[in-house]
Design a protein that fits this description.
The structure is a single chain. By secondary structure, the protein is mainly α. It has helices spanning 9-27, 34-41, 45-48, 50-70, 75-95, 99-113, 115-127, 133-181, 198-208, 212-240, 248-255, 264-275, 277-297, 301-327, 335-396. It contains 15 helices and no strands. The chain is globular. It has a single domain (7-181, 197-396), classed as MFS general substrate transporter like domains (Growth Hormone, Chain: A, Up-down Bundle), CATH 1.20.1250. It starts with 8 loop residues before the first helix and ends with a helix.
Length: 399
């Protein structure tokens, strides 16, 4: 059924972008305040890093739950419940004195946040014309960029002014306010396929993970995000060291530079129609590789600033190109599930990087981190090229 909101796609996209931004921000709240978490709970900074690892892992895994459901459950309901549960989790994080309880609250916060972008990625193809899909995907990805940056910067600045617990309560209030904005979203569920049983829905989604045409693209995102989030996560620890010696406010402030790269996602969504998804995707990966090199050798705030701007620009210029390639290979009724599976693999890679690269940081430091992350970025580009080659070859073969 068509709703009034669905007749106003511009307003719907605007609300979708804002809610996505805030939900994604909640996953990254712990990244700039590892030192404050460690001091509050009497733990090491290494232990404090688990707060982000657990939150991001829960966020990634939750896409397997919410992604398939996003093709069958109303957007308004899914997003509203996710934000409401996120607000309760953030408030719990502020009030709990037990570290294990705090980690559990972070996990629930990450999982609930996934409901919002899962719903919005399913919504975009339903309200966009065929020539707008790349642009609409780009806008939601741009909102995610803003959310990542906002989460890192706002939490650092709020903690400097209100303390860690006060900052968590402030974030809970913002999430609660955002629940009201979901009333502006359409209340549509997917069509006839929404009558499928849960077992059938999830079995079909699991089969997507085995489809070679999709698996190559999922692996491309996995390698890209391993490198991207690996660098960004350990950059927090790098900035605590000389010659920077930043506190949470400094890390929060410099993270705002990622906002400048937000133009990359919607712009690349338009460029896909002109130059093709392969060229746009490889261009974004090239920017990421240059950004990692810049951050690897940076010894000044200017060097770090340029590197941060470029890594956000490159990653989120590449993403619309991959989303478009995925959307071209699945039935419209399953695009929400396919998009969410891609996000699951991307974010799962970032979570894995946070955990796996810990010993690398201890033994090899920043040079080893950036070298490994540059390597995974190169592998991502090679895999994207192989996907394009195989796809062209399959099309050229007679039926």
């Amino acid at each position: 059924m068509t709703t009034p909101a669905s007749n106003r796609p511009t307003a719907t996209v605007a609300v979708a972008c804002v809610t996505t931004c805030i939900a994604v921000a909640s996953v990254y709240l712990t990244q700039p305040v590892f030192a404050e978490i460690a001091a509050t709970y009497g733990r090491s900074i290494g232990d404090a890093r688990l707060a982000f690892s657990i939150s991001s892992i829960a966020y990634a895994l939750a896409f397997f739950v919410f992604g398939p459901l996003s093709d069958h459950i109303g957007v308004r309901r899914m997003a509203g419940l996710g934000l409401l549960l996120g607000a309760a989790s953030a408030a719990s994080a502020a009030l709990l004195d037990d570290y294990m309880g705090f980690l559990l609250a972070c996990a629930v916060l990450g999982a609930s946040a996934a409901a919002v972008p899962a719903a919005m990625f399913a919504l975009m193809p339903r309200i966009a014309r065929k020539d707008q899909i790349g642009t609409y995907f780009g806008l939601i990805i741009a909102a995610s960029v803003v959310g990542i940056t906002l989460g890192r910067s706002a939490m650092g600045l709020l903690t400097a002014g209100l303390g860690l617990r006060g900052a968590w309560l402030a974030c809970a209030c913002v999430l609660l306010v955002m629940v009201a904005t979901t009333r502006a979203l359409p209340e549509d569920a997917a069509g006839p396929s929404s009558r499928q049983g849960l077992l059938s829905i999830y079995a079909g989604t699991a089969r997507m993970l085995m489809a070679p045409d999709l698996l190559r693209l999922f692996a491309t995102g996995f390698l890209l995000f391993f490198g991207y989030l690996g660098v960004v996560t350990f950059l927090t620890l790098r900035l605590h060291e000389p010659p920077f010696s930043f506190g949470s406010a400094g890390i929060g402030s410099i993270s705002l530079l990622g906002l400048g790269a937000v133009v990359g996602a919607p712009a690349s969504g338009r460029l896909v129609g002109r130059f093709g998804s392969l060229a746009v995707g490889l261009g974004g990966l090239g920017i990421v590789l240059g950004a990692i090199a810049c951050l690897a050798w940076a010894q000044s705030v200017i060097g770090v600033s340029v590197g941060l701007f470029l890594i956000f620009l490159g990653v989120f210029s590449c993403q619309p190109a991959v989303f478009v390639r995925i959307a071209q290979r699945v039935d419209p009724a399953r695009r929400g599930a396919a998009s969410s599976l891609y996000l699951l693999t991307c974010l799962g890679a970032g979570s894995l990087a946070s955990a796996v690269l810990g010993p690398i940081w201890v033994n090899g430091g920043w040079p080893a981190i950036t070298a490994i992350c540059a390597m995974t970025t190169i592998l991502s580009g090679l895999l994207l090229c192989s996907d394009a080659y195989i796809s062209r070859r399959n099309i050229a073969q007679p039926a």
